[in-house]
Amino acid sequence: MGIRVYAGLDTSLDAVAICVIAETGEMLWQGKVLGDPDAVTAALQRWRDDLVRVGLEAGATSEWIGGYPVDEGFPVVCLESRHVKAALGAMTVKTDRNDAQGIAQIVRTGWFKALLARGCARSPPRARLASGRSLPTSRSSEACCVPWG
Question: Residue 48 CB: number of other CB atoms within 10 A?
């Protein structure tokens, strides 16, 4: 194992902002991918062996987006939304990219309340269905974010 790496995901219906940082806090990569679990998993694949933790804020889309990386063996942890909001509240410019970077820093420092992220074969999340958008036909599962500890 080389350098220890942490990733933060800021999810929405259309896209997922991803930030990957080293244990020193140095940004290694930042970008956006489609709001699709396969795209997220593909973006994280480069750091697969070095990833210590992948964090995402618990929410409607995180249930679906986070499940596939869990199924693929990535160390995904859902973060309690109120803690993320409090930690990111001091940021002057609120963007998806900055939120992803903030989430990556939160999981790097370990200052968060974890929710268990697990992959499970279930129906698509309600938020995706309620949006009126069609679901990808390649997979139809979601992750469950439940209180941990």
Answer: 14
Query: CB within 8 A of 109, min separation 6: which ones?
Result: none
Tokens at residue 141, please? 């599962």
Q: Could you give the 3-state DSSP secondary structure of residue 75?
A: coil
| 11, 91 Cβ separation under 8 angstroms | no
11: three-class secondary structure by DSSP: strand
Cα-to-chain-centroid distance, residue 123: 19
Asked whether 117 and 66 are in contact (CB, 8 A), the reply is yes
The helix or strand, by DSSP H or E, that contains position 105, with its residue range, turns out to be: helix 96-109
Residues 6+ apart with CB under 8 A from 146: 115, 116, 118
- Sequence-distant (6+) residues with CB within 8 A of 77 are 53, 54, 55, 56, 107, 112, 114, 115, 117
Q: Are strands 5-11 and 114-120 parallel, antiparallel or unpaired?
A: unpaired
Tens of pLDDT, residues 31-51? 999 998 999 999 999 999 999
Measured CA to CA, the distance from residue 132 to residue 107 in angstroms comes to 33
Tell me the pLDDT tens digit for each residue of 5-14.
Answer: 999 999 988 9
